[in-house]
Amino acid sequence: MTQSIKLGKISGIPINVHWSFFLIILYFLYEGWQNNLSPIDLIWLVGFILVLFSCVLLHELGHSFAARRYGIGTEDITLLPIGGLARLQGMPKKPTQEMVVAIMGPMVNVVIAALLGLFFWLTPYGFIEPLNAMDETKGLLVNPSNFLPLLLLINITLVLFNCIPAFPMDGGRVLRALLAIPMNRVKATRIASLIGQIFAVGFIAVYFLYPGHSPFLILIGLFIFVAAGSEYKMVKREAALEGSTVRDVMRTQFTELSEESALEDAMESLTNSKEAAFLVTGRVSDYERNVIGFVSKRGLKRALKTKQPDLIIRNITNKNLYRISPDIQLKKVYEDMTRYGIPIMPVYEEEALIGTIDYYQIHDFIK
């Protein structure tokens, strides 16, 4: 998601488009050119793709606004070749609330389809005939006569597709919410993710067994397979961290590196310690030193590979340090570490440094 272009904000929600999104436009331009479409036809085709993804954006906003109703914010919405992705800051723990958040995305497409259907019902414009005319160009010929009929058809398709119980798609989230009523959330997620991965394998199999289907079936299948497994791990991790504090996991014996030390002096700590990163101290007076930052193991290894003899710890110290209390919830600390890319945090109690906590400890604790 880091390789995205920022388009702006809607109701405070950042809207991005991933660089790979433009591949879908290039793909359809190439297919259109192969089918002898004129330059005007190609412009209509690209215009239709942009309008279609506007519907996808509205779909994701439906999820985001529903989540906001339950006090859950949205990090951002990113448009991808296979659809949209709203990164919510969490999901409601109550099954009924999760169902509402999941359903509100497809409901947006239902409203769009209903409005278009009402338009065709109240006007003399044809619906079936313009779609039949597209068969000769493999469905690529988009023009003023079939633009709206095709938009209606695809919105109906989006609703039906999203109702497939393939977690973490919308239908799969509804399935997980229903399963979470009689059983715990971790077990419900496990079952829903397995069903989602079965569907993912099915999508990929359909592409290879029945020629003529879009290659995007492979991308969708891979995305669902990976996302289902990742979400199960996340829910399992959250359950393991629930109720624990930093005090339960923190190190009370930890390594400190002096900012004046040469990199070679850190070699012993690098090879013998299980810590993910090390605190760096600076001299305050002849009798006192203070923590000024940290050095990660990865950063130390990269610096040592440069073989610059004049480098000292101070040159590679990251001063983006977050002090925390031992009584903070472990789940919150882990979320902050993940969000801001911080491998270690010093733990203070009444202005005294009493320990550290890092990624390795939390992962070991989860296991």
> What's the overall geometry?
elongated
Radius of gyration: 26 Å
Listing every helix as H and every strand as E from the N terminus to the C terminus, the arrangement reads: EEHHEEHHHHHHEHEEHHEEH
Number of domain units: 2
Low-confidence spans: pLDDT under 50, at least 5 residues? none
- The total count of helices amounts to 12
How would you sum up the major sheet? 4 strands, mixed
Classification by helices and strands: alpha/beta
Structure characteristics:
elongated, 2 domains, CBS-domain, 4-stranded mixed β-sheet, 367 residues, alpha/beta
What is the secondary structure topology, with strand pairs?
Blueprint: E1 4-10, E2 13-18, H1 21-34, H2 39-69, E3 74-80, E4 83-88, H3 95-122, H4 128-132, H5 147-162, H6 170-179, H7 185-209, H8 216-241, E5 256-258, H9 267-272, E6 277-283, E7 289-296, H10 297-306, H11 330-340, E8 344-349, E9 352-358, H12 359-366
Helix pairs in contact: 1-2, 2-3, 2-5, 3-5, 3-6, 6-7, 7-8
Structural write-up:
The protein has 367 residues and is an alpha/beta fold. It folds into two domains: 4-241, no CATH class; 246-366, CBS-domain, CATH 3.10.580.10. 52% of the residues lie in helices and 16% in strands. The protein has twelve helices and nine strands. The protein has helices spanning 21-34, 39-69, 95-122, 128-132, 147-162, 170-179, 185-209, 216-241, 267-272, 297-306, 330-340, 359-366, and strands spanning 4-10, 13-18, 74-80, 83-88, 256-258, 277-283, 289-296, 344-349, 352-358. It has a four-stranded mixed β-sheet with strand order 1-2-3-4, with helices on one face. The chain has a three-stranded mixed β-sheet with strand order 5-6-7. A hairpin with a 2-residue loop joins strand 1 and strand 2 (13-18). The longest helix is centred in the first third of the chain and has 31 residues, at 39-69. It starts with a strand and ends with a helix.
